[in-house]
Write a structure and sequence with these properties.
alpha/beta; Collagenase (Catalytic Domain); 5-stranded mixed β-sheet; 5 strands; binds zinc ion
Length: 251
């Protein structure tokens, strides 16, 4: 029934911890605005990893397919970024045995998410408890959209925001229909929809490349949720726009 899995990135519980995690990892995460109209706040910074480093990616042991599907999806980004990935499959109890962050990105599975998922944005993964996964994926590994979900969630794990929220995204949303649909399809409140679906003002917490409706970080948009004739199918692959964006972030 729930054929639309709208991803909602996990937000950090502690904005100050998020700020320090980002700045310690990569000082230029600090807002590089030249004093725009918005007053700069601690929440306004990018969350990118340091170029050239190896990200340790822990994948909780789930079944015989789980480790491979995560590796394959995540690796789709690799040709375009100056980062390396080291994947480690781990038993959940081994994570509890340590009080350190054993992995920069920690991927767990939740069957109820089916072919959906959610992730922290970039360096936010290094905040909170090291015992908490930074990404949770569903377990419908046979779904034709599963690889897309892994690619999309790893986009967030690399610090990418949702493309449909680009300030120049001119999606003619029918707002009331969208609120109603999102509540039924994905249990998103009106506040969730404002925060995760509709365009956001230009801020210093993302890197702007031209709006790209074909981005793998763009939601599918149903025609019935727009005014007039506008829709966007799910983008299953990394787009040319995604490649320019991620190359600029990880030179
Ligand atoms: Zn998402």
């Amino acid at each position: 029934m729930n054929q639309y899995n709208y991803c909602k990135p996990l937000t950090p519980a502690d904005p100050l911890a998020s700020y320090y995690a980002a700045i310690n990892e990569r000082p230029d995460n600090k807002a590089n605005s030249s004093g725009g109209r918005n007053k700069r706040s601690v929440g306004e910074h990018t969350k990118y990893w340091r170029p050239g480093r190896t990200l340790k990616i822990l994948v909780y042991r789930y079944n015989e397919q789980s480790f491979e599907v995560v590796k394959n999806g995540a690796n789709k980004w690799l040709p375009y970024i100056n980062l390396n990935f080291e994947f480690i499959e781990i038993d959940e109890e081994d994570i509890y045995d340590s009080d350190d962050f054993l992995g920069d990105i920690r991927v767990n599975f939740q069957p109820l998410l089916k072919n959906g998922g959610s992730s922290q944005l970039g360096t936010d993964a290094m905040t909170g408890s090291p015992h908490t996964p930074s990404m949770v994926l569903g377990t419908d590994f046979a779904s034709p959209n599963y690889e897309y979900v892994v690619i999309h969630e790893f986009g967030h794990a690399l610090g990418l925001n949702h493309e449909h929220q680009h300030p120049e995204a001119a999606i003619p949303w029918d707002r009331e229909k969208t609120y109603a649909h999102m509540e039924i399809a994905s249990n998103l409140s009106r506040a969730d929809v404002d925060a995760n679906v509709f365009p956001l003002e230009r801020t210093t917490n993302r890197t702007y490349t031209p709006y790209d409706r074909h981005s793998v970080m763009h939601y599918q948009v149903l025609n019935e949720l727009t005014v007039g004739d506008w829709h966007q199918p799910k983008n299953l692959h990394i787009s040319e726009g995604d490649i320019s964006a991620i190359r600029a972030i990880y030179p």
